[in-house]
Every structure is written in structure tokens, then in C-alpha cells.
Amino acid sequence: MTDLQKRSLLKLAALSAVAAAALVGCGKKEEAAPAAPAAAPAAAAPAAKAEPLKVAFAYVGPVGDGGWTYAHDNGRKAVQQAYGDKVVTSFVEKVPESADAERVIRDMAAQGNKLIFGTTFGYMEPMLKVAGDTKDVKFEHATGYKQADNMRTYDSRTYEGAYMAGVIAGKMSKSGTLGVVGSVPIPEVVRNINSFTLGAQSVNPKVKTKVVWVNEWFNPPKETEAATALINGGADVLFQNTDSSAVLQTAEKMGKRAFGWDSDMTAYGPKAHLASAIINWGPYYVKAVGEALEGKWKGNTAAWWGVKEGAIDIVSIAADVPDDTKKRIDEVKAGLKDGSFSIWKGPITDNTGKELLAKDVVADDKFLGGLKTYVKGVEGKVPGN
């Protein structure tokens, strides 16, 4: 074996020995290494975010009517602002008080809405029917009187705003003749016409009220015709229980005075505008949705809110209304809030002389909910009565 071969063999052996030592050393390090700590238990997955409550509103008129539906939609917006991403609200406008209302309400339930508000009297029967078929949905009906386990009713004491408007009308009328454009002859509307007249008589006992019915909640052309007829019949101050601003606009064009209804309508007839009797649906809607979110909502109940609860007010009183009349309005508001004043307190008779309330008797809600006749001072008869 040559020296070169010997050196190669020795070199190879040395390298093998180093490699073996390295392998042994590595193996010892692995054996000596401390055991890895037990894996920490996996953190609990964050709770899934609750799905927002879907809330739907059915409106009889357009949201831009400036009155009834506009006021309800402001209430819907108050709900959205109060609860943010906890709710999703939607609405369908111009839903007629007919069989089509049932279709719309049923479709709202099918789309996953768990709380549905129907905002006009004529939705009562369709909503009651759908409520019977969809027990997992909560229903709220405005101005009605029928309830179920999953349906309740709510209303605002609009007659309080009507009375305060009457106080102003009685003071501001020069002819002593007031005009009212009536929508549908149901107790709610009759009550408002009567309360308006009682308010006017509190400052001018000789005042009389003429009424023209249009038999619709929202029909600006008909409302305009009715307002024109009342002015031509001698009325110099107009009031309404319809949903558009047409009555106020007609008064503006014909140089007479009038009131806004349900919402502040000043902008529609600033020269004619005496005040607006408004409804704030926000407090009730926020409360009702909160109850649904918290699992506290209950059916088979009724709510009727007014000045006391912040649901009714009269605003934007014209500058030319005398200070003593404004002071009287403040007194009425205060009395309605603390219960010291009652609009419907006897003696009150109907326009045939029949006693409705004896002296010092205060009407209860059952009486107010069943009014079908005019009080003294209102001309004519309630249609269908």
C-alpha cells in the first residue's frame, strides 16, 4: 500500500470518527432537552354576534306626505339611531287599507322581520289574520282595538293636540266659523273634530264648526276641494284630520288661516300657519323595540300616549297669536302632563242637545274610544251614524 493510499484511508477514518461523534452529541442534546410545556388549552372562540332584529313598518301614505306617515318614519329613524346595528329597519309606503295590506304584511314576515308595525286603522283585520298564522312574529297595530298573544295596539292622544289647536282657532277666527277636513268617520277622527271644537268654545262659546269628509287618509286633490268648499262656506280657520299639507296650502292661497297636523307643516304655508299639532312616535317605537330586544315584549296590551308621555305637542305657534292665548296653551299642556286638566269633562252635550257627560264627570278611555256623534257647535251628522 502506498503512502498516498495510507493517508487517504487515515483521513477517511478520521472524518468518519468526527461525524459519529457529532451524531452522538446531537442525540444527547435531544435526550437532555427539557420536555416541551403542555400546550395551553385553546382559547374559547368568541361568541357569535347576535343577528340584528329585523323591524318593518307598513305605511298608508308616502313618507314625504309631510304629516302622518312622515311622523311615523321619523319614529323609525329614532329606532335606528337608538339601537344602531342591533336592528335593521325597513318600510313599505302607500299600502292601501285593503286585501293588499295582508299581502304586504305577510311578505314582511316571510322576509324575516320579527317585529312589524302597521300604522293605520284599516290594517287591523289583515294584521290580526297574519298574526294568527305567524306566531313567531310580533305585531303592533296603530289606532286599533284588537289584540292577540303576539299582537298589541298603540295610539297617540291626538285629540289633545286638536284641543290646543282649537283654543288658538277660537281666538283667531273673525267669522266665528271654523272648518274641518275629515278623513274617515271613525271614533278617532270624530273625537278630534269634537276636541278641536271644545277647545275653540273654551275661548269663544259661540263658535261653530263645519265638516267636509273626504273618506280617505291621503288624497291631496280631495283635501284641496274640501278646504275650498269650507272657505267658500264662511270658514276662516281650517283644521284637518288628513295626512297631507293640502289644507294648509289651500288656506295660504285663499288668504285664510290653518293648522299643520301630525308634523310641523309651517313651511307649506307660512302665512296661513297658526300652529302644528304634532305626534312624536319616537318614544313609543324606541320602547317597543327595546322590549323586543330584551325579551320583555308582551302581546294582548294597548298603549295610548299623549302630552304626558311626550307623544303629543303643539309647535311653531304663529307670532300674531296673542300672548294670553299662548299662556293658556302652556297651562293646558301643564295640566295634561300632571293630570290636573281634563279636556272631556262635563257638562258636555251633543249637537242635538243630548247629554254626553254630566256636570263634573270626566270621560274615561272607553267613552273616548266610542264617540260617534258631534258635540254642540259642530254642524251636521257623522256619516253612517
Topology:
Layout: H1 3-32, E1 53-58, H2 68-83, E2 87-92, H3 99-110, E3 115-118, H4 124-133, E4 138-142, E5 151-156, H5 158-172, E6 177-182, H6 187-201, E7 208-213, H7 220-232, E8 237-240, H8 246-253, E9 257-262, E10 273-279, H9 282-293, E11 302-305, E12 312-315, H10 323-338, E13 348-349, E14 355-357, H11 365-368
Helix pairs in contact: 2-9, 3-4, 5-6, 5-10, 7-8
Detailed description of the structure:
There is one protein chain. The chain is α/β, with parallel strands linked by helices. The protein has two domains: 53-156 and 282-305, Response regulator (Rossmann fold), CATH 3.40.50.2300; 158-271 and 309-368, 3-Layer(aba) Sandwich (Rossmann fold), CATH 3.40.50.2300. It is built from eleven helices and 14 strands. A six-stranded parallel β-sheet has the order 2-1-3-4-5-11, sandwiched between helices. Helix 2 (68-83) crosses helix 9 (282-293) and helix 5 packs parallel to helix 6. Mean pLDDT is 90; it is low at 1-40.
Entry summary:
The chain is of the alpha/beta class and 385 residues long.
List keywords for this structure.
single chain; 385 residues; alpha/beta; Rossmann fold; 2 domains; six-stranded parallel β-sheet; six-stranded mixed β-sheet; 11 helices; 14 strands; 39% helix; globular; disordered N terminus
What low-confidence regions span 5 or more consecutive residues with pLDDT below 50?
1-40
Which percent band covers the strand fraction?
15-25%
In CATH's first tier, which class of the largest domain applies? Alpha Beta
Q: Helix coverage percent of residues?
A: 25-40%
Side-by-side strand order of the widest sheet = 2-1-3-4-5-11
N-to-C CA distance: 137 Å
Count of helical stretches: 11
Which whole number gives the mean pLDDT? 90
| CATH fold naming of the largest domain | Rossmann fold
What is the molecular shape? globular
How many DSSP E strands?
A: 14
Can you summarize the main beta sheet? 6 strands, parallel
CATH architectural category of the largest domain: 3-Layer(aba) Sandwich
The secondary-structure element order is HEHEHEHEEHEHEHEHEEHEEHEEH
Number of domains: 2
CATH-assigned homologous superfamily of the largest domain? Response regulator
Gyration radius, rounded: 36 Å
Q: What is the structural class?
A: alpha/beta
